[in-house]
Write a structure and sequence with these properties.
This protein has helices at about 1-10, 15-30, 30-35, 50-60, 90-100, 125-130; strands at about 75-80, 85, 110, 115-120, 140, 150. The protein is an alpha+beta fold. The strands form two sheets. A four-stranded antiparallel beta sheet has the order 2-1-4-3. Strands 5-6 form a two-stranded antiparallel sheet. β3 (about 110) and β4 (about 115-120) form a beta hairpin. It is globular, with a radius of gyration of 15 Å. The protein starts with a helix and ends with a strand.
Length: about 150
């Protein structure tokens, strides 16, 4: 979810617009009817990901990462090569979708022959990448620890 919200902010650069899009996305994704229609035979995942893809695409359309107002990146786990990937170019909706794909819940995203899942499997809070890219102030939320707020 961090990649989604930060992507919206980098794309819109307006808190009010981000809040509205997050509310719309959340209402679509929590709809029991949409979830029921998206269930599939669980060979690789419980859901097909079609509704999820469409909801993310509706937020970003064909916007490229490099066209954002603020420098943006997202982190994914490449399960084909068992490594972390940092995405700084390409279609935002694809890499944000991949960075939100939990194993067993949504199918991995295929990208140049590799399968991509949530970046949290290898780097749950990519503050180190932000710092290496020149960020002097980092505000992050890590939901995996007792004290979720991290500011440096």
């Amino acid at each position: 979810m961090g990649g989604f919200v930060s992507g919206l902010y980098a794309y819109e650069n307006d808190y009010v617009s981000v809040w509205g899009r997050v509310k719309l996305f959340s209402s679509k994704m929590t709809s029991k009817w949409r979830q029921l229609l998206d269930i599939t035979y669980p060979v690789t995942s419980l859901f097909t990901g079609h509704a999820f893809n469409r909801a993310i695409w509706n937020c970003f359309h064909d916007t490229l990462i490099e066209d954002c107002w603020i420098p943006y990146f997202t982190v994914t786990t490449n399960i084909t090569w068992s490594k972390m990937e940092v995405h700084t170019t390409g279609y935002m909706w694809r890499y944000i979708r991949a960075s939100m794909s939990l194993s067993g819940y949504l199918p991995p995203l295929c990208d140049n022959g590799s399968m991509l899942l949530d970046g949290g499997y290898v780097n749950n809070l990519p503050g180190d990448i932000m710092r290496n890219n020149g960020a002097s102030t980092i505000i992050a939320v890590d939901v995996g620890v007792g004290n979720p707020f991290f500011v440096t």
